[in-house]
Automatic annotation (TrEMBL):
<dbReference type="GO" id="GO:0016020">
    <property type="term" value="C:membrane"/>
</dbReference>
<feature type="domain" description="Ketoreductase">
    <location>
        <begin position="11"/>
        <end position="193"/>
    </location>
</feature>
<dbReference type="InterPro" id="IPR002347">
    <property type="entry name" value="SDR_fam"/>
</dbReference>
<dbReference type="GO" id="GO:0016491">
    <property type="term" value="F:oxidoreductase activity"/>
</dbReference>
<comment type="similarity">
    <text>Belongs to the short-chain dehydrogenases/reductases (SDR) family.</text>
</comment>
<dbReference type="Pfam" id="PF00106">
    <property type="entry name" value="adh_short"/>
</dbReference>
<keyword id="KW-0560">Oxidoreductase</keyword>
<dbReference type="InterPro" id="IPR057326">
    <property type="entry name" value="KR_dom"/>
</dbReference>
<dbReference type="InterPro" id="IPR020904">
    <property type="entry name" value="Sc_DH/Rdtase_CS"/>
</dbReference>
<dbReference type="InterPro" id="IPR036291">
    <property type="entry name" value="NAD(P)-bd_dom_sf"/>
</dbReference>
<protein>
    <submittedName>
        <fullName>SDR family oxidoreductase</fullName>
    </submittedName>
</protein>
Amino acid sequence: MPRTTRPLSGHPVMITGAASGIGRGLAQLLSRRGSPVAIADIDADGLKQTAAGLSGPVLTRVLDVADAADQLAFADEVRAWLPAPLAAVFNNAGVAVSSSVLDAVPADDEWLRRINFDGVVNGTRAFLPILVEQNSGAIVNTSSVFGLAGMPYQSAYCGAKFAVRGFTDALRQELRGTGVSAVTVHPGGIKTNIARNGRVRKDPEGKGRTHEQMAAEFEAIAMTTPEKAAEIICRGVERGKARILVGPDAYLFDILTRVSPTHYFDVLAVVMGAARGRAAKGAGR
Ligand SMILES: NC(=O)c1ccc[n+]([C@@H]2O[C@H](COP(=O)([O-])OP(=O)(O)OC[C@H]3O[C@@H](n4cnc5c(N)ncnc54)[C@H](O)[C@@H]3O)[C@@H](O)[C@H]2O)c1
Protein backbone atom coordinates (compact mmCIF):
# COMPACT_ATOMS: atom_id res chain seq x y z
CA MET A 1 0.00 0.00 0.00
CA PRO A 2 1.44 3.43 -0.87
CA ARG A 3 2.30 5.58 2.14
CA THR A 4 0.27 8.76 2.69
CA THR A 5 2.59 11.74 3.00
CA ARG A 6 1.73 14.10 5.83
CA PRO A 7 3.09 17.61 5.53
CA LEU A 8 3.75 19.17 8.93
CA SER A 9 5.30 22.53 8.02
CA GLY A 10 2.72 25.29 8.42
CA HIS A 11 0.15 22.94 9.99
CA PRO A 12 -0.88 23.00 13.67
CA VAL A 13 0.61 20.37 16.01
CA MET A 14 0.39 19.46 19.70
CA ILE A 15 3.52 18.43 21.63
CA THR A 16 3.83 17.20 25.24
CA GLY A 17 7.12 17.36 27.12
CA ALA A 18 7.94 20.57 25.22
CA ALA A 19 9.86 22.24 28.07
CA SER A 20 13.05 20.32 27.28
CA GLY A 21 14.90 17.97 24.97
CA ILE A 22 13.18 16.37 22.01
CA GLY A 23 9.82 18.08 22.70
CA ARG A 24 11.45 21.51 22.74
CA GLY A 25 13.37 20.57 19.55
CA LEU A 26 10.09 19.62 17.83
CA ALA A 27 8.42 22.88 18.93
CA GLN A 28 11.34 24.99 17.71
CA LEU A 29 11.64 23.20 14.38
CA LEU A 30 7.95 23.20 13.53
CA SER A 31 7.34 26.75 14.73
CA ARG A 32 10.26 27.90 12.57
CA ARG A 33 8.59 26.15 9.65
CA GLY A 34 5.36 28.09 10.22
CA SER A 35 3.34 25.62 12.31
CA PRO A 36 1.11 26.92 15.09
CA VAL A 37 2.20 24.83 18.11
CA ALA A 38 0.21 23.82 21.20
CA ILE A 39 2.84 22.88 23.76
CA ALA A 40 2.38 21.26 27.16
CA ASP A 41 4.63 20.26 30.03
CA ILE A 42 4.56 19.84 33.80
CA ASP A 43 7.55 22.21 34.04
CA ALA A 44 6.02 25.70 33.83
CA ASP A 45 9.35 27.58 33.73
CA GLY A 46 10.86 25.38 31.04
CA LEU A 47 7.68 25.68 28.99
CA LYS A 48 7.84 29.48 29.23
CA GLN A 49 11.44 29.37 28.01
CA THR A 50 10.45 27.21 25.03
CA ALA A 51 7.57 29.55 24.17
CA ALA A 52 9.82 32.61 24.46
CA GLY A 53 12.07 31.20 21.73
CA LEU A 54 9.21 30.67 19.24
CA SER A 55 8.09 33.28 16.77
CA GLY A 56 4.77 31.92 15.46
CA PRO A 57 1.41 31.22 17.12
CA VAL A 58 1.74 29.19 20.33
CA LEU A 59 -0.66 27.85 22.94
CA THR A 60 1.10 26.87 26.18
CA ARG A 61 -0.43 24.67 28.84
CA VAL A 62 1.01 23.38 32.11
CA LEU A 63 -0.16 19.79 32.18
CA ASP A 64 0.59 16.51 33.93
CA VAL A 65 0.18 13.94 31.17
CA ALA A 66 -0.76 11.33 33.79
CA ASP A 67 -3.96 13.29 34.50
CA ALA A 68 -6.51 11.89 32.04
CA ALA A 69 -9.19 14.49 32.87
CA ASP A 70 -6.78 17.37 32.35
CA GLN A 71 -5.65 15.92 29.02
CA LEU A 72 -9.31 15.91 27.93
CA ALA A 73 -9.70 19.53 29.08
CA PHE A 74 -6.52 20.47 27.18
CA ALA A 75 -7.81 18.74 24.03
CA ASP A 76 -10.96 20.92 24.25
CA GLU A 77 -8.78 24.03 24.53
CA VAL A 78 -6.69 22.97 21.55
CA ARG A 79 -9.85 22.26 19.52
CA ALA A 80 -11.11 25.78 20.24
CA TRP A 81 -7.70 27.31 19.41
CA LEU A 82 -7.00 25.38 16.19
CA PRO A 83 -6.62 27.70 13.19
CA ALA A 84 -6.65 24.70 10.79
CA PRO A 85 -6.84 20.89 11.04
CA LEU A 86 -4.45 19.37 13.60
CA ALA A 87 -1.62 17.68 11.68
CA ALA A 88 0.06 15.74 14.50
CA VAL A 89 -0.15 14.92 18.19
CA PHE A 90 3.27 14.23 19.69
CA ASN A 91 2.82 12.26 22.93
CA ASN A 92 6.45 12.80 23.84
CA ALA A 93 6.72 13.57 27.60
CA GLY A 94 8.72 10.98 29.51
CA VAL A 95 10.96 10.28 32.51
CA ALA A 96 13.59 7.72 33.50
CA VAL A 97 14.23 5.41 36.45
CA SER A 98 17.35 3.32 36.90
CA SER A 99 17.23 0.37 39.29
CA SER A 100 17.61 -3.37 39.43
CA VAL A 101 14.35 -5.31 39.70
CA LEU A 102 15.48 -6.53 43.13
CA ASP A 103 15.95 -3.02 44.50
CA ALA A 104 13.05 -1.39 42.62
CA VAL A 105 11.08 1.18 44.62
CA PRO A 106 7.44 0.62 43.63
CA ALA A 107 6.60 4.35 43.89
CA ASP A 108 9.35 5.19 41.38
CA ASP A 109 8.21 2.54 38.91
CA GLU A 110 4.61 3.70 39.31
CA TRP A 111 5.64 7.34 38.72
CA LEU A 112 7.37 6.34 35.49
CA ARG A 113 4.51 4.12 34.30
CA ARG A 114 1.92 6.85 34.93
CA ILE A 115 3.90 9.29 32.77
CA ASN A 116 5.53 7.12 30.10
CA PHE A 117 2.62 4.80 29.40
CA ASP A 118 -0.57 6.23 30.89
CA GLY A 119 0.48 9.69 29.67
CA VAL A 120 0.64 8.39 26.10
CA VAL A 121 -2.69 6.56 26.42
CA ASN A 122 -4.34 9.65 27.95
CA GLY A 123 -2.99 11.91 25.21
CA THR A 124 -4.08 9.49 22.49
CA ARG A 125 -7.59 9.14 23.92
CA ALA A 126 -7.98 12.89 24.39
CA PHE A 127 -6.77 13.98 20.94
CA LEU A 128 -7.75 11.05 18.69
CA PRO A 129 -11.40 12.24 18.40
CA ILE A 130 -10.16 15.51 16.85
CA LEU A 131 -8.15 13.63 14.21
CA VAL A 132 -10.94 11.12 13.53
CA GLU A 133 -13.44 13.95 13.01
CA GLN A 134 -11.06 15.60 10.53
CA ASN A 135 -10.17 12.19 9.03
CA SER A 136 -6.55 13.38 8.92
CA GLY A 137 -3.45 13.72 11.08
CA ALA A 138 -1.03 11.50 12.98
CA ILE A 139 -0.80 10.29 16.57
CA VAL A 140 2.98 10.15 17.17
CA ASN A 141 3.86 8.22 20.32
CA THR A 142 7.38 8.16 21.71
CA SER A 143 8.70 4.75 22.66
CA SER A 144 12.48 4.14 22.70
CA VAL A 145 15.11 1.67 21.59
CA PHE A 146 14.35 0.34 25.08
CA GLY A 147 10.95 -0.48 23.59
CA LEU A 148 12.77 -2.80 21.16
CA ALA A 149 15.27 -4.40 23.57
CA GLY A 150 15.17 -5.28 27.26
CA MET A 151 18.05 -3.60 29.10
CA PRO A 152 19.41 -4.26 32.59
CA TYR A 153 18.34 -1.75 35.31
CA GLN A 154 15.67 -0.37 32.98
CA SER A 155 12.80 -2.76 33.76
CA ALA A 156 10.20 -0.05 34.46
CA TYR A 157 11.30 2.05 31.49
CA CYS A 158 11.42 -0.95 29.11
CA GLY A 159 8.03 -2.16 30.38
CA ALA A 160 6.44 1.22 29.66
CA LYS A 161 8.17 1.72 26.29
CA PHE A 162 7.30 -1.80 25.06
CA ALA A 163 3.73 -0.99 26.14
CA VAL A 164 3.74 2.26 24.14
CA ARG A 165 4.84 0.28 21.11
CA GLY A 166 2.11 -2.36 21.59
CA PHE A 167 -0.58 0.24 22.21
CA THR A 168 0.41 2.31 19.17
CA ASP A 169 0.74 -0.73 16.88
CA ALA A 170 -2.75 -1.87 17.94
CA LEU A 171 -4.14 1.61 17.26
CA ARG A 172 -2.49 1.60 13.83
CA GLN A 173 -4.43 -1.50 12.83
CA GLU A 174 -7.71 0.06 14.05
CA LEU A 175 -7.02 3.10 11.90
CA ARG A 176 -6.39 1.15 8.67
CA GLY A 177 -8.34 2.60 5.80
CA THR A 178 -8.86 5.97 7.52
CA GLY A 179 -7.01 9.23 6.99
CA VAL A 180 -5.52 9.05 10.49
CA SER A 181 -2.25 7.29 11.28
CA ALA A 182 -0.43 6.06 14.39
CA VAL A 183 3.35 6.35 14.49
CA THR A 184 5.84 4.87 16.96
CA VAL A 185 9.11 6.70 17.58
CA HIS A 186 12.16 4.76 18.80
CA PRO A 187 14.98 7.16 19.72
CA GLY A 188 18.46 5.90 20.53
CA GLY A 189 20.55 7.96 22.94
CA ILE A 190 19.65 11.66 22.64
CA LYS A 191 21.59 14.34 24.55
CA THR A 192 18.77 15.67 26.76
CA ASN A 193 17.97 16.13 30.45
CA ILE A 194 16.27 12.74 30.75
CA ALA A 195 18.98 11.03 32.84
CA ARG A 196 19.59 14.12 34.98
CA ASN A 197 15.86 14.44 35.77
CA GLY A 198 15.35 10.72 36.34
CA ARG A 199 15.11 8.85 39.64
CA VAL A 200 18.14 6.86 40.83
CA ARG A 201 18.40 5.72 44.46
CA LYS A 202 21.86 4.16 44.08
CA ASP A 203 24.19 3.04 41.32
CA PRO A 204 22.46 -0.16 40.14
CA GLU A 205 25.75 -1.49 38.74
CA GLY A 206 27.38 -1.25 42.18
CA LYS A 207 30.18 1.01 40.93
CA GLY A 208 29.37 3.72 43.48
CA ARG A 209 28.71 6.40 40.84
CA THR A 210 26.61 9.39 41.89
CA HIS A 211 23.44 10.28 39.99
CA GLU A 212 25.36 13.24 38.52
CA GLN A 213 28.16 10.96 37.26
CA MET A 214 25.67 8.55 35.74
CA ALA A 215 23.87 11.42 33.97
CA ALA A 216 27.17 12.80 32.66
CA GLU A 217 28.10 9.33 31.35
CA PHE A 218 24.74 9.04 29.57
CA GLU A 219 25.18 12.47 27.98
CA ALA A 220 28.71 11.55 26.84
CA ILE A 221 27.61 8.40 25.01
CA ALA A 222 24.29 9.69 23.62
CA MET A 223 24.92 10.11 19.88
CA THR A 224 22.21 12.49 18.69
CA THR A 225 21.21 16.07 19.56
CA PRO A 226 17.55 16.86 20.30
CA GLU A 227 17.51 19.19 17.28
CA LYS A 228 18.64 16.37 14.99
CA ALA A 229 16.14 14.00 16.64
CA ALA A 230 13.33 16.49 15.95
CA GLU A 231 14.35 16.68 12.27
CA ILE A 232 14.39 12.89 11.92
CA ILE A 233 11.02 12.52 13.63
CA CYS A 234 9.36 15.22 11.51
CA ARG A 235 10.81 13.79 8.30
CA GLY A 236 9.55 10.33 9.26
CA VAL A 237 6.03 11.58 9.97
CA GLU A 238 5.99 13.61 6.75
CA ARG A 239 7.02 10.53 4.76
CA GLY A 240 4.19 8.55 6.29
CA LYS A 241 6.39 6.11 8.22
CA ALA A 242 4.70 3.90 10.79
CA ARG A 243 7.87 3.48 12.83
CA ILE A 244 10.69 5.99 13.15
CA LEU A 245 14.19 5.03 14.30
CA VAL A 246 16.16 8.02 15.61
CA GLY A 247 19.96 7.94 15.47
CA PRO A 248 22.52 5.38 14.24
CA ASP A 249 22.35 3.44 17.53
CA ALA A 250 18.60 2.96 17.01
CA TYR A 251 19.35 1.12 13.74
CA LEU A 252 21.81 -1.14 15.59
CA PHE A 253 19.18 -2.00 18.24
CA ASP A 254 16.63 -2.68 15.51
CA ILE A 255 18.90 -5.01 13.54
CA LEU A 256 20.19 -6.91 16.56
CA THR A 257 16.74 -7.53 18.04
CA ARG A 258 15.52 -8.87 14.68
CA VAL A 259 18.54 -11.08 13.96
CA SER A 260 18.90 -12.42 17.49
CA PRO A 261 15.75 -11.86 19.56
CA THR A 262 17.18 -13.59 22.65
CA HIS A 263 20.92 -12.85 22.43
CA TYR A 264 21.06 -9.22 21.26
CA PHE A 265 22.44 -8.08 24.60
CA ASP A 266 25.64 -10.12 24.10
CA VAL A 267 26.54 -7.68 21.34
CA LEU A 268 24.98 -4.56 22.89
CA ALA A 269 26.93 -5.06 26.14
CA VAL A 270 30.22 -5.03 24.19
CA VAL A 271 29.27 -2.01 22.05
CA MET A 272 28.01 -0.01 25.04
CA GLY A 273 31.03 -0.97 27.14
CA ALA A 274 33.31 0.36 24.38
CA ALA A 275 31.31 3.60 24.11
CA ARG A 276 31.52 4.10 27.88
CA GLY A 277 35.27 3.45 27.77
CA ARG A 278 35.71 6.08 25.06
CA ALA A 279 33.56 8.56 27.01
CA ALA A 280 35.55 7.97 30.22
CA LYS A 281 38.84 8.49 28.32
CA GLY A 282 37.45 11.71 26.83
CA ALA A 283 36.54 12.90 30.34
CA GLY A 284 40.06 12.07 31.54
CA ARG A 285 38.88 9.35 33.94
N1 LIG B 1 16.97 11.14 25.60
C1 LIG B 1 17.00 9.88 25.16
O1 LIG B 1 18.08 9.29 25.00
C2 LIG B 1 15.72 9.15 24.84
C3 LIG B 1 15.83 7.90 24.23
C4 LIG B 1 14.67 7.21 23.93
C5 LIG B 1 13.43 7.76 24.20
N2 LIG B 1 13.36 8.98 24.79
C6 LIG B 1 12.02 9.52 25.07
O2 LIG B 1 11.89 10.79 24.46
C7 LIG B 1 10.90 11.53 25.17
C8 LIG B 1 11.43 12.92 25.46
O3 LIG B 1 12.49 12.82 26.41
P1 LIG B 1 13.78 13.76 26.39
O4 LIG B 1 14.93 12.88 26.17
O5 LIG B 1 13.57 14.92 25.52
O6 LIG B 1 13.85 14.16 27.95
P2 LIG B 1 13.78 15.55 28.68
O7 LIG B 1 13.89 15.24 30.15
O8 LIG B 1 14.75 16.52 28.13
O9 LIG B 1 12.29 16.06 28.34
C9 LIG B 1 11.16 15.39 28.86
C10 LIG B 1 10.08 16.43 29.16
O10 LIG B 1 8.93 15.75 29.68
C11 LIG B 1 8.41 16.55 30.73
N3 LIG B 1 7.59 15.78 31.66
C12 LIG B 1 8.01 14.92 32.62
N4 LIG B 1 6.96 14.46 33.32
C13 LIG B 1 5.85 15.05 32.80
C14 LIG B 1 4.48 14.98 33.12
N5 LIG B 1 4.02 14.22 34.11
N6 LIG B 1 3.61 15.71 32.38
C15 LIG B 1 4.07 16.52 31.38
N7 LIG B 1 5.37 16.63 31.05
C16 LIG B 1 6.25 15.90 31.75
C17 LIG B 1 9.65 17.11 31.41
O11 LIG B 1 9.32 18.23 32.25
C18 LIG B 1 10.53 17.45 30.23
O12 LIG B 1 10.31 18.76 29.78
C19 LIG B 1 10.57 10.71 26.42
O13 LIG B 1 9.39 9.98 26.20
C20 LIG B 1 11.75 9.77 26.53
O14 LIG B 1 11.42 8.59 27.23
C21 LIG B 1 14.48 9.70 25.11
